[in-house]
Amino acid sequence: MKLGDLEKLLLHYLWQHGCSDVKTVFAHFENTRGGSLNTYQSTLERLYKKGLLSRHKEGHAFHYKARVERHELIGQLIKSVTTDFVGEDDGSSLIAAFSSMSSEFNVEQLDKLESLIEQQKLKLKQQG
Amino acid sequence: MSAEPLTLLLNVLAIAVVCFVLHNIAVSAFVTLLSTRFLKLQVKSRKITLWFLATLPWFSAFSTAAYFVYAANGLSPFESASSMDHWHHIDSFSWLSWHGAVTACALGFLAYVISSRLLKLRAHQHEIKSLMALSRKLDNNTFEIDSSDAAAFTAGFISPKCFVTKGMREQISETEYHIVMQHELAHANKRDPFKKWLFALLAAFFIPNIKQRLVLHMTLAMEQDADNAVVSNTTSSLDIAGTLVKVARLNATGSTLKNTDMVANFGADVLEQRVYFLLGQLSLKPVNHLLMMLLAIAAFFLCLTSVDSIHHFIETFTSH
């Protein structure tokens, strides 16, 4: 999922302030970031099309609200970054993870490995 | 008679494709028969062997093609060109022949693989930027992600960044956290994400089964190398092995990081090998570099001398 700088900024704003229309958003950023009302309108529209915002009409204006919570978006991004090229493809991940990003480890296998490590530690203690 | 440059180029491309396929089959057979033995090689030797195998078809294709270009310009170092190398119609090329079809298919496949990998890479870079923007910067290369799941990984092509989740930091001890971060920094210092991408690109030209085996071995070698980098006077390999198993357990209870069965099995196998390696239960040997060099030279001469025979063999089934 691609997110531009302004898109991230608007998401942060909506996570903090809840539901807003474009004029309120523009008024908030006008002095600090600049840009035109159209820029903010099209950015909110893009976020809506990406499924990150929901909207409803009040009078003539759309009111936008974040559709995903911050932690949900982070979860999606971690999943996407760590599974890009992995699940769909051939294991050729662009990431190098400390432990393979899997929830399917065999518990028995982990127990076996853990007891092996404990045995080795005990052996070293006895020797030392 | 000297060939037109374009005709020569297309014939040389056809020669390169034949050589590439020949060595691709040879490497695939080698990997099928001996891939389990790779595990007995020292980490550095294993990495060299894997890079050698992944690049061998390209090396033989380019070196044979380069030789034919020189030979076509009367620069063959051999007394009789026909005794070593021959392509019986280097001065003519038709797209409506098996040469044309093979060359077109090879160029199309090459363009498809490279462009699709580059597009995925671009999307991946955007996602990393988004993740960075939503994370807390710990230092220049390290970011903490506000997530309750336990995860730590290094990502990024030109300037790799290490990511660790808050959940990971909260669920492991100071010492374990230090091990995790040192491991990730080792990946970043070695530019492993870029190397993995490049290796996977080379492996993409093999059949899926061979591609997976090659990538699996390279991933394991890179992880073991990063584990090794953490071992110091203050951090023992036993501590690293213990941390690995603990993090694997945390991953097993996490909800964000779920993958396919293929990746799960792959992960478990890699974990087991890494723990055995850290416990010193594997006796690893170096690879003979001279033997590898001789193999590369033999591969080049085999291609040079057999390419026209293969050409004639194919033409017993097809027309020009």
Give structural notes.
The complex is a heterodimer of chains A (128) and B (320). Chain A contains 6 helices and 4 strands. Chain A has 128 residues and is an alpha+beta fold. Chain A has a domain at 1-89: Arc Repressor Mutant, subunit A (Orthogonal Bundle). The N and C termini of chain A lie far apart (54 Å). Mean pLDDT of chain A is 82; it is low at 85-92. In chain B, strand 3 and strand 4 (161-165) form a beta hairpin. Chain B is mostly helical and 320 residues long. Chain B has helices at residues 5-38, 43-72, 81-84, 98-133, 166-171, 174-189, 192-203, 208-230, 237-253, 261-278, 289-314, and strands spanning 136-139, 142-145, 152-155, 161-165. At the A-B interface, helix 4, helix 5, strand 4 and helix 6 of A face helix 4, strand 3, helix 6, helix 7 and helix 8 of B.
Quick recap of the structure?
The complex is a heterodimer of chains A (128) and B (320). With 128 residues, chain A is of the alpha+beta class.
Feature tags:
heterodimer, A: 128 residues, alpha+beta, Arc Repressor Mutant, subunit A, three-stranded antiparallel beta sheet, 6 helices, elongated, B: 320 residues, mainly alpha, 2 domains, four-stranded mixed beta sheet, BlaI_family (chain A), WH-like_DNA-bd_sf (chain A)
Number of discrete domains of chain B: 2
Output mean pLDDT of chain A: 82
Order of helices and strands of chain A: HEHHEEHHEH
Give me the CATH superfamily of one domain in chain A. Answer: Winged helix-like DNA-binding domain superfamily/Winged helix DNA-binding domain
Q: Structural class given helices, strands, pairing of chain B? A: mainly alpha
Helical percent range of chain B? 55-70%
What amount of the residues of chain B lies in strands? 5-15%
Number of strands of chain B: 4
Mean pLDDT of chain B: 83
Provide the CATH top-level class of one domain in chain A.
Mainly Alpha
Low-confidence stretches of chain A: 85-92
Query: What share of residues of chain A is helical?
Result: 55-70%
Task: State the end-to-end distance of chain A.
Answer: 54 Å
Principal-axes geometry of chain B comes out as: elongated
Number of strands of chain A: 4
Order of helices and strands of chain B: HHHHEEEEHHHHHHH
Give the biggest sheet of chain A: 3 strands, antiparallel
Radius of gyration of chain B: 24 Å
Instruction: Give the low-pLDDT segments of chain B.
Output: 255-267
Coarse morphology of chain A = elongated
